[in-house]
Amino acid sequence: MNESPSIPEANTGNNTYVKDFMASIVVFLVALPLCMGIAIASGVPPALGLITGVIGGLVVGALSGSPLQVSGPAAGLTVLVWELVQQHGIGMLGAIVLLAGVLQMLMGVLKMGQWFRAISPAVIQGMLAGIGVLIIGSQIHVMVDDGPKGSGLQNLLSIPEAIYKGIFPLDGSSHHIAAAVGVFTMALMFGWSYVPKSLKLIPAPLVAVVIVTVAAAVLQLPIKYVNVASNLAAVTQFPTMAAFTNLLNASVIGSAIALCFIASAETLLSAAAVDRMHQGERTKYNKELFAQGVGNTICGVLGALPMTGVIVRSSANVEAGAKTRLSAMMHSVWILGLVVFAPFLLNKIPTTALAAILVYTGFKLVSPKAVRELKPYGWAEVGIYFATLVGIVATNLLVGVMIGLGLALVKLLYTFSHLGVRIHTEPATNETTVILDGAATFVRLPKLAAALESIPAGTSVKLDIEKLSYIDHACLDLISNWRKQHIAREGQAEVPLADLQQRYQVREATVDSLAQPPLMAAAKAGQ
Questions:
Q1: What is the layout of strands, in order, in the sheet containing 460-471?
Q2: Concatenated DSSP letters for 385-436?
Q3: For the packed helices 397-415 and 78-88, what is the interaxial angle rounded to 10 degrees?
Q4: How many CB atoms sit inside 10 A of residue 160's CB?
Q5: Taking every pair of C-alpha atoms in the chain, what is the biggest distance, in angstroms?
Q6: Which of 76, 158, 361, 428 is the most buried (most CB within 10 A)?
Q7: Is residue 468 a contact partner of residue 440, using CB atoms and an 8 Å limit?
Q8: What is the rounded average pLDDT of the residues 139-157?
Q9: Is residue 321 left, alpha or beta, with left meaning phi > 0 and alpha meaning psi from -120 to 50?
Q10: CA–CA separation, 323 and 3 (whole Å)
Q11: What is the tens place of the pLDDT at every residue in 105-118?
């Protein structure tokens, strides 16, 4: 028998605290390398990623509408943040994140949380795949102790150059050493998937980072290392008055809206996936959206990275046995404690190891599994996926997502405006079958009326609606009146009026089902 949803919240005994404590350690170990790696990939100091991780646990964890979801810097925002920093400068990042946070709070108050769940998973998966391609393109350069080249296309086109540097020593450089360390890091992560299940509670990224860090220290490798300031206040980027003035710039406002939209979609997609992993309290989407807004507003004030709800840390939290929001809150305390009391440990981590973790993540985001899962829903969904992916890589994240959303809307309009009407007469029995395929709406009423009126009086007619997905009131009324008239003209009409009425009444469920290919798979692809 399943647990009642109220049981996890009601259980406040020592056992719950112990489980939350143990889960917080696991989440901390997962989050630590990701917070720093995502910050470096975003073009900001790693400490800004750690600050976001702390706020995501302490603030958003306390206010969250999804108690077991963990928030922090996300790989899904890496490309967008990097573009913001390149376009507007790191000094504007805080102001943009702050504005995005305020917009999220406003949307939470206006109860817009549920709307983000209606985004086509083909767009979401295409967005994640596009982000994965761009992450791979940029972080392969970081893996060889080089820097990203500029745009996403430039990074991708210059990958052969990075590979060449990683294989052949050039002018006494250490690019090949960094590349070897990065490849070794990915090999460790891949190999960890084959260890006994009991050991998998220890996160693969942490295992790889620890082994590589120790090896680099023992061998004193001449490669780049993480630089985390011992005083977090020294790296905060408080927005200036000039930054707030620039918020009136149309391109800055557009960037904030894009950040708000993508962060909200990723958060609520993750929350929906987390709900499927446990039997506890269900997500309150508007509350979660408001909590994310509060967190991003604070991150903006401190000039830190933006945050989302992140599925990898959240799933680790659930699988480790977390029962309440306390685990998410405690994990950020461990991050803060390590940064304050032992930053020298973090400074021994090779940069290439963190880049390798993100390259590995990028390959997971581009998994062909997403295409296989979309294919049963039609080639149109697969086309939307690839259009979104290519749009993101060729232009930028916002344009690519808008391309995907536009195509999804076109598909929806086509679905609800396309009606096939086929009339077949069986010579042996002289029985006529009218086969309807698609959606019978007022847009196609003239076509339907012409087909029905072409049937001679006195014939036996059967209406086949097996492939009819939807019918509106206008077409339902047309069929009902035609049936009466045909019978009055000494004909026979087998019309399943009850089934037609049911299709009319469940139109909202039909709309919802058109946009619901596997959401959980899309969420699990992200970080």
A1: 419-426, 431-440, 460-471, 492-494
A2: HHHHHHHHHHT-HHHHHHHHHHHHHHHHHHHTT-EEEEEEEETTTTEEEEEE
A3: 130
A4: 9
A5: 96
A6: 76
A7: yes
A8: 85
A9: left
A10: 12
A11: 999 999 988 787 67
Residues ≥6 apart with Cβ < 8 Å to 487: 493
Report the distance separating Cα 407 and Cα 385, nearest Å: 10
SS3 category, 79: helix
Do 235 and 305 contact (CB within 8 A), yes or no?
no
Q: Are 385 and 517 in contact (CB under 8 A)?
A: no
Beta partners for 439?
A: 470
Mean pLDDT, all residues of the chain: 85
Return the domain boundaries, the chain: 7-409+517-525, 419-495
User: What are the structure tokens assigned to 425, written together?
Assistant: 């007469």
Q: How does pLDDT run across 434-459, given as a tens digit for each residue?
A: 999 988 888 888 999 999 999 988 88
* Whole-angstrom distance, CA of residue 518 vs CA of residue 302: 37
Q: Does residue 290 or residue 392 have the better pLDDT?
A: 290
| Count of C-beta atoms within a 10 Å radius of residue 439 | 22
- Contact assessment for residue 108 and residue 284, using Cβ atoms and an 8 Å cutoff: no
What are the backbone dihedrals phi and psi of residue 462, each rounded to the nearest 5 degrees, phi first?
A: -120, 130
The structure tokens 């596997």 sit at 518
Helix or strand holding residue 507 (H, E)? helix 507-514
User: Under DSSP, is residue 193 helix (H, G, I), strand (E, B) or coil?
Assistant: coil
User: What CATH topology corresponds to 419-495?
Assistant: Transcription Regulator spoIIAA (3.30.750)
**pLDDT value for 149:** 78
Sign of the alpha-carbon torsion through 215, 221, 226, 227: positive
| Rounded Cα gap, residues 426 and 412, in angstroms | 35
308 sits in which H/E element = strand 308-310
Strand partners, 438: 419, 468
Which position has the higher pLDDT, 277 or 51? 51
